[in-house]
Design goal:
By secondary structure, the protein is α+β, with helices and mostly antiparallel strands.
């Protein structure tokens, strides 16, 4: 059963329990009778504003309407200080984003479960890192990008089978999150805030993929207890960071890049590999291409120039449609069939009403279904 059906069934159950008619409920919450029928039947996704009105009418918590067999959605975070900066409302926003995604895409009848890797922590650090590098290369080979830098890593991860959601969560304290369960599948959620450079969003995408590969059994079982970690001290975070570095800058492509150029421009190189300047220098030092002295001086310089949080010469912003290609394609079909509202589109993509109107106008202008007949 998909999320629209679950929501509709829960609304129907409450209506029957309290002997409320469709017409009475539709009038009470300010929607048309036919629209409410579609919500109850599960044939049209409902936006959160209307669902909140129904929740208030029946005096039920918002997430009551999403529950079936107590399936839980749990997260790992990429954040600087998650214990301090992540609140329950942030977890609710992440959780509801997955529910909305499922509401749009529906239930395929199966879930993709990523391959699971186990690290032996009794091995020395270099052995562990060499293994992670090999796994990163294997994952690039599986994605058919072992010898190229792809235009769009978001597409790459979605094509592997992971569900990807990118939207602005209005809280810049975290860069991304991932969720895993046998029932609901694997998700990577990227905070598409304007204040977060694209390089860091891409790194977070691959970092969270690393968590799904190495730490699937460690996602929290508690609804309001995300798996919080400290990026500097937790070994799981270090593994995910190493995986992201090796994945984005594999040794074979780094060597090929350097051999093909007489002079290396760090800014041009970081843009080529789509990584932050910090990731670039970490990996160049990892591969022994720059000395310890050059590496140490680099960190002094970025501290002096304030580039620990900001990104010098950042990549151009990747369009939200390119990050959410699978989701957007389904939304287009629903929109042109008049099965989704503009409010729901705004909610799912995390954009305001004006941006949604521009998007809908763009779709109408380029879609063949709206071309005049000759």
């Amino acid at each position: 059963m998909n999320i629209s059906n679950i929501i509709g069934q829960n609304i129907k159950t409450l209506m029957e329990k309290e002997n409320i008619s469709l017409r009475r409920l539709s009038e009470s919450i300010g929607i048309t009778h036919p629209t409410l029928i579609k919500y109850v039947e599960g044939s049209q996704p409902i936006d959160s504003e209307k669902l909140m009105k129904i929740a208030m009418y029946f005096k039920k918590p918002f997430d009551y309407f999403f529950k079936e067999d107590n399936n839980s959605i749990n997260f790992m975070f990429r954040a600087d200080k998650p214990e301090k900066d992540i609140q329950n409302i942030d977890l609710d926003n992440l959780r509801n984003s997955i529910y909305s995604y499922l509401d749009i895409l529906g239930n395929l009848g199966y879930q993709y479960i990523p391959q699971k890797y186990t690290i032996n922590f009794n091995d020395d650090k270099r052995t562990i890192f060499n293994l992670i590098a090999k796994i990163a290369y294997d994952q690039r080979r599986i994605a058919n990008i072992e010898n190229v830098i792809p235009d769009n890593y978001f597409d790459v991860i979605q094509n592997i089978g992971i569900n990807v959601i990118a939207k602005d969560f209005k809280n810049d304290a975290y860069f991304g999150a991932s969720s895993f369960s046998n029932d609901l599948g694997s998700y990577i959620i990227i905070n598409d805030s304007e204040k977060i450079p694209e390089e860091r969003k891409i790194f977070s995408l691959i970092h969270e993929y690393g968590h799904l590969l190495f730490h699937s059994e460690q996602y929290s079982n508690s609804q309001y207890n995300a798996f919080y970690v400290s990026g500097k001290s937790d070994m799981n975070e270090k593994i995910a960071n190493k995986f992201a570095g090796y994945f984005l800058m594999p040794k074979n492509l780094v060597d090929s890049y350097i051999e093909s150029r007489k002079n290396i421009d760090p800014i041009e190189m970081k843009k080529y590999f789509k990584v932050s300047i910090q990731t670039l220098y970490v990996m160049l030092h990892e591969y022994g291409i720059i000395s310890k002295e050059v590496y140490s001086d680099f960190w002094k310089q970025i501290t002096i120039h304030g580039f620990k949080m900001e990104e010098p010469f950042p990549l151009e912003k990747i369009d939200i449609q390119e990050k959410n290609a699978k989701l957007v394609n389904k939304i287009k079909d629903l929109y042109f069939n008049e099965d989704i509202s503009a409010n729901k589109i705004s909610e799912v993509l995390g954009i305001d009403t004006l941006e949604t109107r521009k998007l809908l106008k763009e779709w109408r202008n380029i879609d063949e279904r709206y071309l005049p007949l000759k």
